[in-house]
Amino acid sequence: MMQNQGFKPKTRRLSPIPNSHWHILTHPAASTEDVRQTETVPKDIVHHILGDFGIWQLRGVLIILLCKIPIAWFMANILFTAPEIYPRKEFSCDARAYGVNSSISGDQCFVLVSHPGRNYVMHHCHKFQYAQSFHSLLMEFDLACLGDIFVAWSQYWHLFGLLVGGIASTKLLRVLSPRTVYGLGVGSLIALGLIMAYLIQDFSQHCALRCLSGVCCALMGAAGRIVVGDIIAGRHRLIALLLYDSYCSLALLLLPAMASLASNWRQVYLYITLPLFVLLILLPYTPESPRWLLQHSRYPETLEQVGNLVLQAAHVNDRCFKIPADFHEQLHQLQAHLQLADPPPGWLSLWQGRGAKLQTFAAHVALAMFFISHMGLLLNIRAFGRKNMTANMLAIGLSELLGCVLALNLSFKRSSHKWKWAGGLSILAGCLGCLCWLNAHLPAPYVQLSWLLLSSLPTIAVSSAQAMLLGSLEELVPSKLGATFEFSLITWSRLWMLSAAFLTLLRQWHVAVPLSIFCTLLIVGGICTCFLVTRPREERQVKQLTGQRAGSDCYSSDTHI
Fold it and tell me: Which residues cross the membrane (predicted)?
């Protein structure tokens, strides 16, 4: 039975009416520029066809990752080309030039010459006689008594070359493609390695060539990182960047075996140079960065080159069904969009915004401390004796490999609190490493094992935290600040890393001094890492359809400091 619902007048749908004046003032409409950008943003056809990961990307990444092996060899070879030699047993001072009225100190580094009517006069010994089978750099330049200083000074020039090469790579990548810069670094490093193996005769030449080799290593690493970050997307990109440092640990595991085959330091350089020819042979199969070509190249044939590259990758990945009918038109639209993109903001913009000052400061301090600790812990194994060099190098290599695996686990299993975990583990490992002062109370058979353990634990922590920080830079700042942030962070950290070689000289006071300093710096870096916060995805503006997906700043080499 119908109920009486009362009278209801006819109603009509309200017609659109203008907003009130107050609403217009407090909620301004989107600018015409924003509307135009929203409407004209093309689809990233490159990512649409290639996908996040595939066989083609795997082949390219494995080829590029191989460059980390010679990079690590040229960085750490000073430990085997200039090993410690022992006085009296392996070298003695040649004091014949001072006459019969002379005597030699116990460490064979000073000559005491007696003069009639005067006391003894002390002179530094400049010529030595050697009884060691391996002809090292210390013998080549007669620096038997200055071995620690020589190693620190030589390593300083290599680290300085890394600093200069990192800055030079940003300039070169404005005019040269990443694969061209990569090939330039490989070819130059081969030439420098052969020169160091056959032609070097002077100490100053050695330092100059070590600096140039550091420049070449930086060029190879920067260019390879750009290609890896451009052809891979999603979580696979993070995995590849985290594993980018794991090949360094593999190189450290192979270096003692290669050095054991050499009878002099020149052969060591020859053995670490010859594998570079493999990279030269694989250069035609090394992928190019497609978005770099679209963004920077002005040649008409570039579009055809990128098109052929994408089509070849689609064929290898079995994704030809993703190729649209208007493929070349969409590729041209993407090229126009990338070339019209605004340049990265200036360095001061890193410090603007809510929480930006703390985030930027903490990241800079943390990575600088990690760089110093990582390099220092590697060089400091020389302080534990030449007889234990191989075992210590293998332990450091395994520790770095475990650190990379730990970084993978924290990034995917503890992603919401990964910075707290990385910082906490660094603090814990640093505190354990500072216990090295208690080694004096251990029985003699356990002293070397204790040094090995107390240097391996901090290495695991610093390798993990450093890999996470370098692989997740895009999570710390908005996408438009990625290139500026990465350039500032790495350049600042490499500048501070120059001090790592000289901190190892403190072992002249006590073996535990440099180790405790590196562990203290690791603690400071861990504290700063705990303050890092992953920005929300919306704030980082990670959009697959803007032509600049997450991490696309890695192929934009223009930075304005």
Answer: 60-80, 156-173, 180-201, 207-228, 240-262, 268-286, 361-381, 393-412, 419-440, 452-473, 512-534
**Nearest by Cα to 362 from 185, 524, 513, 501:** 524
Residue 266: pLDDT band (50, 70, 90) is very high
Are 547 and 437 members of one domain? yes
Give pLDDT, residue 299.
77
185-217: per-residue pLDDT in tens? Answer: 999 999 999 999 999 989 999 999 999 999 999
CB 399 within 8 A of CB 463: yes
**Do 97 and 78 share a structural domain?**
no
Average pLDDT, stretch 231-244? 87
The total of structural domains in the chain comes to 3
Residue 367 has pLDDT above 80, yes or no: yes
Structural domain that includes position 101: 91-131
Q: Are residues 521 and 397 in the same domain?
A: yes
Strands (E), 390-447: none
- Cα distances from 41 to residues 233, 326, 332, 334, 479, in angstroms, run 19, 16, 12, 8, 16
**Domain identity same for 113 and 223:** no
- For the ranges 35-44, 132-141, 259-268, 362-371, which has the lowest average pLDDT? 35-44
Shared domain for 444 and 538, answered yes or no, is yes
Asked whether the predicted pLDDT for residue 522 surpasses 80, the reply is yes
β-bridge partners, 114: 120
Q: Report the candidate in 397, 415, 399 with the shortest Cα–Cα distance to residue 462.
A: 399
Closest to 402 (Cα-Cα) out of 470, 456, 453 = 456
Q: Indicate whether 302 and 243 sit together in one domain.
A: yes
Question: What residue type is assigned to position 145 of the chain?
Answer: C
Cβ partners under 8 Å of residue 396, min gap 6 = 252, 377, 378, 381, 455, 456, 459
**How crowded is residue 391: how many other Cβ atoms within 10 Å of its Cβ?**
15
In a domain, 18, yes or no: no
C-alpha span between 82 and 134 (Å, rounded): 10
Between CA 79 and CA 378 the distance in angstroms is 9
- Residue 42: the pLDDT is 64
* pLDDT recorded at residue 34: 42
Query: pTM for the full model?
Result: 0.86
Q: In this predicted structure, what is the pLDDT of residue 245?
A: 76
Q: How far is CA 431 from the centre of its chain?
A: 25
Helix (H) or strand (E) holding 186: helix 178-198
